[in-house]
């Protein structure tokens, strides 16, 4: 005798809460649902509207600094630790869980130009215009106000970055210098025809590779193991910040003075992979998500924008009434939050997904959320859904500046088109925008 047993999961036909409707089994056969496409479109439209309606990215502000926040650094060992440096020389270590100051010190007598954590999160370094670099303990008590070590130089420092494996750090100033935390003098120095180095960053995968930005509008790659430069790319406008993609270490993004961001492949520096446009003023900072799929930028136009690595337009635009010029932005190690330091002395915490909440979701809520996201992704090409999904509310001054910028770019394109039409064939070549900003590449 053959016996067939029906096996059912009790969660499929019982309520998770008293307020929920009792689940009912439904047939998925297409002939039973003739209006399925219209119904899915309406659900996708409602889902994208609700996403915009419940988008509240701002979480809170960390106040305590008496001057503008110039640099931020996240701890690789703790999600609740953030260090900020201000323009008056003060350093603060924040407890993000309690949104309070865990430790503060008047570290320098001038601008704090850079802060960087070690890979273990045991210590961090800070540099300043007062020609000093100081090594601090990441777990110091409130009474501990003396640094673990102090490094002196003849020139002011503009930026600093810590090595991802060893107890080394690199500084940017009149030249690039490589230091050991156990020595008082630099181990190596690099220079290639620039008045000043403004940024320095280690590659996250190839640890002997060092990327630098200079005041002569150039981006230079150095090999610390060989003690020499590899390539130098000079752009039409000065880059202000540089960040490597942690998941694709061959790629890096530059924040430029011409309001745009450029993603490059270090193997082909004669053109950019993608041009990210949207800001209406100089972009001052950029940082990648740990997933490598997104990055955040902070600009002089008082807005913070989140981008996809292949997207030409920003996915989200964050702003606040009291927020001023953004000097530094930083992504949390769990890719859930974004931090910004601005000229109004505050460090702000934002959600990386504006409509996401920190509360624990039930399995059914997760499935509902995934279903809504899948519907929006499936219908994103339709005009109404595309319009709502891509719309971002920005301040009136930013919108007016964007319209003026669009008009100027249209005029420039029209002028170039007319010049090409009234010139000899080939005399005015058509240069793609990805190549137009690269002036020269030297090896």
Helix/strand/pairing category: alpha+beta
General shape: globular
Oligomer: single chain
* Beta content: 35-45%
Report helical residue fraction.
10-25%
Task: Compute the separation of the termini in Å.
Answer: 81 Å
Strand order of the largest sheet: 14-15-16-17-29
Q: Mind summarizing the main beta sheet?
A: 5 strands, antiparallel
Number of contiguous helices? 5
Q: Rg, please?
A: 26 Å
Could you describe the 3D structure shown?
The chain has helices at residues 36-53, 363-378, 383-390, 396-421, 433-436; strands at 58-62, 69-74, 81-86, 90-95, 100-106, 112-117, 123-128, 132-137, 149-152, 159-162, 168-172, 176-180, 188-190, 197-202, 209-214, 218-223, 228-235, 239-244, 251-256, 261-265, 274-276, 283-288, 294-299, 304-308, 316-318, 326-331, 337-342, 347-351, 438-442. The protein is α+β, with helices and mostly antiparallel strands. The strands form seven sheets. It has a five-stranded antiparallel β-sheet. The protein has a four-stranded antiparallel β-sheet with strand order 1-28-27-26, with no helix packed on it. Strands 2-3-4-5 form a four-stranded antiparallel β-sheet, with no helix packed on it. The mean pLDDT is 91.
């Amino acid at each position: 005798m053959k016996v067939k047993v029906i096996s059912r999961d009790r969660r499929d036909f019982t309520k998770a809460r008293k307020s929920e409707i009792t689940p009912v089994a439904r047939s998925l056969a297409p002939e039973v649902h003739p209006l399925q496409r219209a119904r899915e479109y309406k659900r996708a439209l409602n889902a994208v509207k609700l996403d915009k309606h419940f988008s509240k990215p701002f979480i809170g502000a960390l106040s305590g600094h008496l001057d503008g926040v110039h640099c931020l650094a996240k701890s690789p060992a703790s999600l609740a630790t953030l260090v900020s440096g201000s323009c008056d020389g003060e350093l603060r270590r924040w407890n993000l869980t309690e949104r309070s100051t865990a430790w503060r010190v008047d570290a320098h007598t001038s601008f704090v130009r850079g802060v960087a954590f070690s890979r273990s999160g045991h210590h961090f370094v800070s540099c300043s215009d007062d020609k000093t670099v100081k090594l601090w303990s990441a777990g110091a008590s409130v009474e501990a106000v003396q640094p673990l070590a102090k490094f002196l130089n003849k020139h002011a420092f503009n930026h600093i970055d810590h090595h991802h494996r060893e107890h080394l750090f690199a500084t940017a100033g009149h030249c690039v210098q490589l230091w050991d935390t156990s020595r008082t003098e630099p181990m190596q120095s690099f220079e290639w025809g620039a008045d000043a180095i403004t940024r320095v960053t280690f590659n996250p995968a190839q640890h002997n590779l060092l990327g630098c930005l200079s005041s002569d509008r150039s981006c230079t790659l150095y090999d610390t193991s060989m003690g020499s430069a590899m390539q130098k790319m000079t752009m039409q406008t000065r880059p202000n910040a540089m960040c490597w993609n942690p998941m694709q270490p061959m790629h890096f993004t530059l924040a430029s003075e011409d309001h745009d961001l450029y993603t490059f492949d270090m193997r082909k520096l004669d053109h950019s992979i993608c041009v990210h446009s949207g800001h209406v003023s100089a972009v001052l900072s950029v940082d990648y998500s740990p997933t490598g799929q997104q990055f955040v930028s902070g600009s002089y136009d008082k807005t913070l924008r989140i981008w996809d690595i292949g997207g030409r337009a920003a996915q989200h635009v964050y702003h606040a009434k009291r927020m001023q010029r953004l000097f530094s932005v930083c992504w949390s190690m769990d890719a859930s939050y974004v931090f910004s330091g601005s000229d109004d002395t505050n460090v702000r915490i934002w959600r990386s997904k504006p409509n996401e909440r920190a509360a624990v979701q039930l399995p059914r809520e997760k499935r509902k959320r995934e279903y809504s996201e899948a519907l929006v992704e499936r219908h994103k090409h339709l005009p109404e859904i595309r319009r709502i999904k891509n719309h971002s509310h920005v301040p009136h001054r930013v919108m007016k500046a964007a319209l003026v910028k669009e008009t100027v770019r249209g005029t420039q394109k029209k002028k170039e088109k007319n010049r090409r039409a009234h010139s000899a064939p080939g005399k005015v070549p058509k240069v793609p925008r990805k190549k137009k900003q690269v002036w020269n590449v030297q090896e």
